[in-house]
Amino acid sequence: MKPLLDRMIAAALACCAAAPAYGEIKDYEVRRYLYLKTPCGKASIANVERRDGAIQFHADCQNKTDFPDGAIVICTDPESDLSCSLKTPAANFHSLKLLQDNSSKVLSP
Questions:
Q1: Residue at 49 is within a domain
Q2: For the chain, how many structural domains are there in total?
Q3: Contact at 8 Å (CB) between 74 and 84?
Q4: Do the domain assignments include residue 77?
Q5: Looking at the domain assignment, is residue 55 inside a domain?
């Protein structure tokens, strides 16, 4: 009975002495970042690890007006979502505003 108890204690201690846990940025953290800090809206996300250790996320945005090709988010520290930043700026279509200004004027006969 004693050797069985010793083995169980040794197994429990071996499980506790596992490698240290490292954080990793999850997709939901990037989705939250896009939803709260950009006009991207809800998005589907794919991530790609880069050579420099950063993680790059490509999101297909719901808002196709501002992000027709999607948004790219780069997180320089793979353990902290605070290091994430938006690489793709929102698109501005100034010609659409020029068209709206011309069409809003009422022509007098």
A1: yes
A2: 1
A3: yes
A4: yes
A5: yes
Both tokens assigned to 28 = 């939901």
Domain that holds residue 30: 26-90
Side-by-side strand order, sheet with 43-49: 43-49, 55-61, 71-75, 84-86
Give 61-71 pLDDT, tens digit per residue. 888 888 888 89
Does pLDDT of 45 surpass 80?
yes
Q: How would DSSP label each residue in the chain?
A: -HHHHHHHHHHHHHHHTPPPP-----HHHHHHHHHHHSTT-SEEEEEEE-TTS-EEEEEEES-TTT-TT-EEEEESSTT-GGGEEE-SPPP--HHHHHHHHHHHSPPP-
Which is more confident, 78 or 104?
Answer: 78
Distance CA 102, CA 105 (A): 6
Is residue 15 a part of any domain in this protein? no
86 contacts 67 by C-beta, under 8 angstroms: no
